[in-house]
Design brief:
Order of helices and strands: HEEEEHHEHH
Radius of gyration: 27 Å
Strand content: 5-15%
Shape: elongated
Helix content: 55-70%
Largest sheet: 5 strands, antiparallel
Number of strands: 5
Length: about 220
């Protein structure tokens, strides 16, 4: 395909990685990881995130409050905080590492091996960022499901459910993994384009041609 070039693949990888990083950054601070709506009081909606909890009422609107203490948080939220911060950090490093290695960027000029290593490093960091996003979102999703179906709670007691941030986290983590994969694909495409041309006049080729000539004469 004409448009499927190494330069286009590198730009696509950078764009997808940047989109995934922005999505993960927004997900980290959104208070919409879990939602709860009581059937006894339908005018109140509770929202829970990694950093604060919010209450929405029709009369007052939305009110948010940060968690009082870190040690009092559930273990899944503590782990999710650390992993999401690691994800944002590694995602930013992936962009910083891969940008100088892009074809057409006037950085590291005349050093193709360094550009290749930077693209590989960007792909690895993007993979790490994506996995450290998918892990906390999946952990919180698992604990939410376990608590929702816990038979020890009364049926009338409201329970937490999935929030919108859970789905944006899955989307952002998957985008980072795809972006890292595209960086690897661009490196493979560049290696394929720079491969040495085949030499038909090599001694092995001449030996094979003589062998085929003898066979035809016989």
């Amino acid at each position: 395909m004409v448009f499927l070039t190494t330069k286009m693949m590198q730009r696509s990888a950078l764009f997808v990685t940047f989109g995934g990083l922005v999505t993960c950054l927004v997900t980290t601070f959104l208070p919409l990881w879990k939602t709860m709506n009581s059937d006894l009081n339908e005018v109140e909606n509770w929202f829970s995130g990694l950093w604060h909890m919010c209450l929405y009422t029709e009369e007052v609107g939305i009110q948010c409050k940060a968690y009082d203490t870190l040690m009092g948080l559930p273990l899944d939220l503590q782990i999710s905080r650390v992993l999401m911060l690691v994800s944002v950090g590694t995602g930013g490093l992936a962009l910083l590492a891969a940008f100088p290695g892009l074809e057409g960027v006037d950085m590291c000029v005349g050093q193709p091996d360094l550009k290749r290593r930077l693209l590989i490093l960007g792909g690895v960091l993007s993979w790490v960022s994506g996995l450290t996003t998918l892990a906390p979102v999946s952990i919180v999703a698992y604990t939410t499901v376990v608590e929702f179906w816990d038979q020890g709670f009364p049926d009338v007691m409201p329970r937490w459910e999935y929030g919108e941030a859970m789905f944006s986290g899955w989307f952002g983590g998957l985008a980072l993994v795809i972006g890292g994969t595209l960086f690897f694909v661009s490196v493979c495409m560049e290696d394929f384009d720079q491969r040495p041309p085949s030499v038909p006049n090599s001694p092995q080729a001449k030996h094979r041609s003589k062998h085929y000539l003898k066979t035809e004469v016989l």
